[in-house]
Amino acid sequence: LMATLCNMGIPMGMQYSITAIGSVILQSAVNTLGSNAVAAMTAGGRIGMFFTCPYEALGSTMATYGGQNVGAKKLDRIGSGLKACSILGIAYSAVAFVLLWFTGERLAMFFVESANVSIIADVKLFLLINSAFYITLAFVNIIRFLIQGMGFSKFAILAGVFEMAARMIAGFILVPMFGFTAACFANPIAWVFADIFLFPAYFYVCRKTKEMLKI
User: What distance lies between CA 69 and its chain's CA centroid?
Assistant: First the structure.
């Protein structure tokens, strides 16, 4: 049992480490844009962390849900659970975008002096671009954690590699070419890259699970 838990848990930890490498590379690229860009990214990141907490909760829920239903050999419930969780994620994403559209500037003032108009504008730009792609982030968490709960945790590493590659592209190529706007798109690009991998992976996992359980 301990070996099984480690086999599932270690890849999950490695996935976060790999993702962090891409974030460090991106931050290095943002540092070259000057102190205003760094301040805007820092403030936007902190606000964004607050708004993205529900996605972590949805992911954790699906990990437990997926594991329970695989154990009970009720794979038909996994699809319906994924659908319900996806609807919640999409609905919350829409609400979060509207909230940030109207309150982005005021939220920025918790971290930035009101006199720094350009930084506040950059924070709002960062929040709006990221929140416009929150739906893709919802699927990253929901599907990735679901796959992990079903016993295929090594796919988490591959999803992390896709995210890291996207942030490396943004850091090494896009930010030097397009500046702060490119940095704002780094996270959304990473989420899209991860989804490109995770959607086919989910169908593969479902097929393999049915074969293993002989359903």
Answer: 24
Q: What was the pLDDT predicted at 215?
A: 65
pLDDT at 212: 86
User: Is the distance from CB of 165 to CB of 186 less than 8 angstroms?
Assistant: no
Global pTM exceeds 0.85: yes
> Closest by alpha carbon to 97, among 44, 133, 122?
133
Distance between CA 13 and CA 202 in Å, rounded? 20
Q: What is the pLDDT of residue 11?
A: 75
Task: Decide: residue 136, CB within 10 A, 0-12 exposed, 13-18 middle, 19+ buried.
Answer: buried
> 85, 165 in Cβ contact below 8 A?
no
CA distance 191 to 159: 9
**Cα–Cα distance between 70 and 61 in angstroms, integer?**
14
Q: How far apart are CA 106 and CA 129, in angstroms?
A: 17
Residue ranges in the chain modelled with pLDDT below 50 = none
- In this structure, how many other beta carbons lie within 10 angstroms of the beta carbon of residue 67? 16
* Whole-angstrom distance, CA of residue 134 vs CA of residue 188: 8
Q: List the structure tokens of 79.
A: 């699809």
Cα four-point dihedral sign 33, 181, 175, 53: positive
Tokens matching residue 211: 């074969």
The pair of structure tokens assigned to 54 is 């529900």
Single-letter amino acid, residue 79 = G
